[in-house]
Amino acid sequence: MQTVVLKIPAKINLSLDITGKREDGYHTIRSVFQTVGIYDRLTLTRTCDDTPLTLTCPAPEIPADRRNLVWRAAEALLGEAPRGLSMHLEKGIPSQAGMGGGSADCAAALLGIRRLFLPELSDGELHEKAAALGADVPFFLKGGTVLCEGIGEMLTPLSPMPVRHIVIAKGNEGVSTPAAYRALDELGACPPMTTRAVLSRLYVSDAERLFSVCGNYFDAVTKLPEVETIRRVMRSFHVNPVLSGSGAAVFGGCRSAAQAEELAAAIRLAGIPFVQVCRSTGGIRFEAPENGEADA
Q1: pLDDT above 80 (res 1)
Q2: Coil, helix or strand at residue 136
Q3: What b/e sequence results for 11-46 when a residue is b if at least 16 CB atoms lie within 10 Å of its CB, and e otherwise?
Q4: Which has the least CB within 10 A, 20, 64, 76, 268?
Q5: Of 58-62, 99-103, 289-293, where does mean pLDDT reach its minimum?
Q6: Catalytic-labelled residue, pool 136, 142, 170, 219
Q7: Cα–Cα distance between 144 and 139 in angstroms, integer?
Q8: What residue segments make up the domains of the chain, in order of their start?
Q9: Residues 156, 225 contacting (CB under 8 angstroms)
Q10: How far apart are CA 28 and CA 181, in angstroms?
């Protein structure tokens, strides 16, 4: 058997501007995506050719069937009744957080299945498969620092921004993305756009100059009590709180690792269940399987 293991980073939106709404109902965006060091891990093992696909995940809230984008990635590459593959997903990225966990896992499955079964599949063909599975999936095929436009399918890779120290926090409540978009449609006034300012400061040496201009349209319509608690604590440290995606995770960029650790401790004391200090990072990586099998 052949096994591959993929380490899968989450993402945050350093900016997220809504630029319009298409006739089909999809909103267009302009956003700077950045992968960060909070990880899922996906293990793919090539099994006997006549063995049906299996997916396991120890997190009880995560479906281990066709509802999971990892399963649908296997169908996209191997057909409607995939065989010869077992998949095991370990979650570290919180759900309903706006951090792209499902899309990231889907992209990892596409990359891993290509390595095991379809090494001749081009990057362009894989991108097409990814775009059909979800708007954010193509981004995770590359990761890093990327300007995303359209509905998320128009990607402009940027030079990696300097390593930054980031605190990410999420309460128990999640946010429905369709409901968040409906709230924006009903808002009337447009929040200020931030992408241009973020692009102008991505590479400054002073982290505070960058993070002070980060912003997200959804900040204007997301008022969950736990989100407000996170915002209050971050502001008390003079850190700008910003939603990621449609929420409900909130991130704050810090000037140093020490400030980030102090801020994270304060948010935990406020009763927020998920709080992590991380750094900006690159994209999905293949790792050596723990059992020592070749990774194809």
Answers
A1: no
A2: coil
A3: bbbbbbbbeeeeeeeebebbbbbbbbbbbbbbbbbb
A4: 20
A5: 289-293
A6: 136
A7: 9
A8: 2-158, 165-279
A9: no
A10: 11
- The Cα 276–Cα 92 span in angstroms is 11
Q: Are strands 85-90 and 54-56 parallel, antiparallel or unpaired?
A: parallel
- What pLDDT, on the 0 to 100 scale, is given for residue 291? 57
Distance CA 93, CA 10 (A): 6
Residue the block writes with tokens 């079964």: 117
40-83: per-residue pLDDT in tens?
999 999 999 999 999 999 999 999 999 999 999 999 999 999 99
Q: Residue 123 catalytic?
A: no
Which CATH number does 165-279 carry? 3.30.70.890
CB 147 within 8 A of CB 68: no
Q: Strands 165-170, 250-254: parallel, antiparallel or unpaired by DSSP? A: antiparallel
- As a whole number, mean pLDDT of residues 143-149 equals 97
Residue of 11, 91, 142, 170 marked catalytic: 11
β-bridge partners, 52: 83
Decide: 259 and 165 in contact? Cβ < 8 Å: yes
Q: CATH assignment of 2-158? A: 3.30.230.10
For the question of residue 223 being annotated catalytic, the response is no
| Contact between residue 242 and residue 219 where contact means Cβ atoms under 8 Å apart | yes
Mean pLDDT of 143-159: 94
Cβ count near 205 (within 10 Å)? 7
